[in-house]
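User: If only I could read backbone structure tokens as easily as an amino acid sequence. Underneath my words sits a plain record pairing an amino acid chain with its backbone structure tokens. This is the protein in question:
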Amino acid sequence: DTLSVSENTSPPVRAVYLTAEILGLQLERIHMSLMNEDQLRPEFVKLNPQHTVPTLDDDGKIIWDSHAIMIYLVTKYSKDRSLYPEDPFTRAVIHQKQHFDSGLAFPAFIRIVVSFRNR
């Protein structure tokens, strides 16, 4: 399999790298400069209409959002189920921990940034 991921140094991208490393996967890293608006290039928007990173290309199967990518990698490439057990409650706890950033941390961060910006 050829796995490539659009990358920068954001925490979501690093989470995908750590997951791949735990699984022993090699990712082709394609650098994306958000400051240069690489994510808005037509060829990238064609792959990912949300133009976000990370974006994973697994032999033409395109997935974006770090949470979805990590679950996909663990489900497809893990040799056992220790990282993503079958038990629904255990999976729910994993999802709860995964989505801490989007459900609590990121909205708080945005409120702080907006408050400084509006000064």
Remarks:
- Strands lie at 3-7, 28-31, 55-58, 61-64.
- The longest strand covers residues 3-7.
- The chain has a mean pLDDT of 88.
